[in-house]
Amino acid sequence: MKPRILALGDGALTLEFGDRIDRALNAKVMAARDALAAMKLEGISDVVPTYRSLTVHFDPLLLDREALTAQLLQAAQAPPGKSALATRWNIPVVFGGEFGPDLAEVAHTTGRSEAAVIEALCATELRVFLIGFLPGFPYLGELPDWLRLPRRTTPRTAVPANSLAIAGAQAAVYPWASPGGWHLLGRTPVRLFDLADAARPALLAPGDTLRFAPVSRAEFECLAADVAAGKIGPKDWQAA
Amino acid sequence: MIEILECRMPASFQDVGRPGYRHLGVPLSGALDVEWLAIANTLAGNPSGAVALEVHLLGPSLRATAPVTIALAGEFSARIQDAAGQWREACNWRSHALAAEEILVTGALRSRIGYLAIHGGFDVPAVLGSRSTYARAGLGGINGRALQAGDCLEVGAGAPAIQQRLPQPPRPASGPLRILPGPQREYFTDAAWTHLINDEFTVSREADRMGLRLDGPRLEHDPAFGADIVSDAVTPGVIQVPGDGRPIVLLADCQTVGGYPKIATVVGADLPRLAHAGPGHTLRFVEVSIEEALAVRRRAAAALADCIARIVPDAAELDFDALYGANLVDGVIDARQSN
What we know:
The structure holds 2 protein chains of 2 kinds. Chain A has 2 domains: 4-75, 2-Layer Sandwich (Gyrase A, domain 2), CATH 3.30.1360.40; 88-237, Cyclophilin-like (Cyclophilin). Helix content of chain A is 24%, strand content 28%. Chain A has helices at residues 23-39, 65-75, 103-110, 114-123, 217-228, and strands spanning 4-7, 12-16, 44-49, 53-58, 88-95, 126-131, 138-141, 156-159, 163-167, 170-173, 178-180, 183-187, 209-214. Chain A is globular. By secondary structure, chain B is α+β, with helices and mostly antiparallel strands. Chain B has 2 domains: 2-165, no CATH class; 177-288, Cyclophilin, CATH 2.40.100. Helices cover 17% and strands 28% of the residues of chain B. Chain B has helices spanning 34-43, 190-198, 271-274, 290-309, 320-325, 329-338; strands at residues 2-6, 11-14, 52-58, 61-64, 68-73, 78-81, 87-90, 94-98, 103-105, 108-118, 152-153, 164-165, 177-181, 201-207, 211-215, 232-233, 238-240, 248-250, 257-258, 262-266, 282-283, 285-287, 312-313. In chain B, the strands form 5 sheets. Chain B has an 8-stranded mixed beta sheet. In chain B, strands 7-6-9-4-1-11 form a 6-stranded antiparallel beta sheet, with no helix packed on it. In chain B, β14 and β15 (211-215) form a beta hairpin. Chain B is elongated and about 70 Å long. The two termini of chain B are 31 Å apart. The chains are: A alpha+beta, B alpha+beta. The A-B interface holds A 6-12, 14, 16, 19-21, 45-53, 55, 57, 60-61, 65, 130-137, 139, 176, 193, 195, 198, 201-202, 205-206 and B 19-28, 127-129, 136-139, 180-184, 229-235, 237-238, 255-257, 262, 265-268, 290, 293-294, 297-298, 301.
């Protein structure tokens, strides 16, 4: 599929690379985002990368739509590579028990042990495809084939904040308490959205990569206390 | 300071929104009708994009603990009670001085929504560059929540305001809402498109600052494409259609991305009109070209500037309504210049 430009009203254009969840497509999206950022155009308010498209919200009275269309198609040609804007993260998670009430069921459904589920998830380098749904909410992928389960038939009315959840090929961490229908495997002490850093209130950005690292309940509680006290912060979760 | 005495319907602080964070999942938010927000603020002597109270259906009652100037944009039925218990009417589309201990009761809104601005602005903190309330994530306003009785609000500093009025309130636009097709027009049958531009839709009871779900003919997806897409970006004005074929028009608090195909998008210039569409309102749509959408946007910006330029100091000796009744529109502009 050739990249194409779609109208999202008169104040936004979407550069579409494809219609699937695909790491290669997403890498092109991120390359186009970086190329567009380098053009430093006036009149753009937001640039929103998704799995497979890049949307530019702009003021059409300040920025010529035809010119922007040409610039977006030019940005679409940027070769995918290692984004200078991408960060690698290590996110500690306490699995199972009260923190991951669906771990046992996921293990049972997939025919593996709880330890095997945790090991497979933590061995997978996940890509941040998209931030959406809620402020700071990351759509992460992709999970090993055998770990891909349909959503729960009955969504929970309240998923606790900081829960790690999976559904289909995707994983996510809830930055806020929210209703949700994904399978809850664990909880992280990491704050996914923190207004203390106005320059980057969301920890993760589209194009970043991350791994989950299992911690014990005691370690989780210690880390959570240090986060609450401000002793550790975003930089401490970056991979070496 | 202002003390909220009563607030029975949702009211929230809104400015022009929180652009620049949609890639992090933070919605734009902001006033549903940014034109009325600008009028309310100008009447109050504020910059047009300052934070004001967006009121839905039924306005709050509030007490001034010190002299303040407030302004009303919208069709409120408002009254002011002085310290001696005497009532006076608070007309719409003008500013009003409240003495200490005076009480403003704003009552029911004939215009469904309205804006209450205060000279100096409400002193709520800016969060990510905006004071707009986004309740779902607790951002902006008063700890990200709706206004409540008992809230006490500081008012920003500023020179004493002069009283001002807008002699001719903005006329509500009529006619169908203008739409541009797409971005997923191809996901729908031609019959669905014909329904969209020919038939009437009614706003259902599922209507809030995130969007309006419409009743009317079902908009069928082309079976070759289906009713799901891999999520991509949405924006206020988008008409998305889930599998049940019932369209949802998104508004200021909409999420940043969505997984439903988007048959069309209401043009930017018509977004303020959507702000006034509540349950039971009927809506029609008409397709326009991008050139027309941009021309309408330019005209709307010029009309707003023109409207704001007609705001005049409130001179008690001049009866502007009478002048307007006599069709002496130019005379009013002269009166302003001679003031």
